[in-house]
Write a structure and sequence with these properties.
By secondary structure, the chain is of the alpha/beta class. The protein is built from 7 helices and 9 strands, in the order E-E-E-H-E-E-H-H-E-H-E-H-E-E-H-H. It has one domain: P-loop containing nucleotide triphosphate hydrolases (Rossmann fold), CATH 3.40.50.300.
Length: about 230
């Protein structure tokens, strides 16, 4: 499996430090924290999409280049992530054979290619987006609240799919979420972030069963249902 070690990720504007962390992504890792904690900025750093007004000091060790082919991204809202006026088949950038292969990988059939996004359910759309993200066989998959906009049944199936893909393709996964339940059984490791700093990190079961910091305890006890903890 590939490795990603972020020795330094320091983001600042002209007035203050916004994020100053170091961490490793091993297998499937969850990044969790309340609104404004630095989760989105961390993802944008890995995607090379930080606003130009921010200053980035980034020192990373990995055995692949951080480029669009190796780093794939799945956003949280499948309903706004695709062009509504374009058939699914025209939203892929690969051969027809590859499109079929990718759809099969995420549990969809070829008829989906002839549909417009509005003709598919939220769960189907999120599967399509995951399929598109896997087009170039990425090494790292970034998931930004991938189940937030889905109903309970679709959410469960997408989490099962993420688990299957991670195992089958041997991907590194960084899973940003406010939903504590969604990472159980999916993410082996967890990083708790607050105000741009890491509060606690380690094996998911260790952190959830024996949190060392009061902030982590409050996050777990809240079940992330309080809006203050949402991204």
């Amino acid at each position: 499996m590939s490795k990603l070690i972020v020795h330094t990720l320091h983001i600042q504007d002209n007035e203050a430090s916004l994020v100053n962390i170091s961490f490793s992504v091993t297998q499937s890792t969850a990044l969790i924290g309340q609104s404004g904690s630095g989760k989105s900025l961390t993802l944008k750093s890995l995607l090379g999409m930080l606003p130009s007004n921010l200053i980035l000091d980034f020192n990373v060790e990995c055995d692949f280049e951080l480029n669009p082919k190796n780093v794939a991204f799945v956003p949280q809202n499948p309903f706004t992530s695709l062009s509504s006026m374009t058939k699914i088949k025209n939203q892929f950038f690969c051969t027809h054979e590859r499109k079929i292969e990718l759809l099969q990988l995420v549990g969809l059939e070829s008829w989906v290619l002839e549909r417009f996004p509005g003709q598919l359910s939220g769960g189907q759309l999120q599967r399509v987006i995951i399929a598109i993200a896997l087009t170039y066989q990425p090494k790292l998959l970034l998931l930004d609240e991938p189940t937030t906009a889905l109903d309970k049944k679709s959410k469960t199936k997408i989490l099962e799919l993420i688990n299957t893909i991670q195992t089958k393709l041997n991907l590194l996964i960084l899973f940003v979420t406010h939903d504590i339940n969604s990472i159980i059984g999916v993410c082996e490791n967890i990083i708790i972030i607050k105000n741009g700093l890491i509060v606690e990190q380690g094996l998911t079961q260790d952190i959830l069963n024996h949190p060392q910091k009061s902030y982590t305890q409050r996050l777990i006890q809240s079940g992330f249902e309080n809006r203050d903890f949402r991204k």
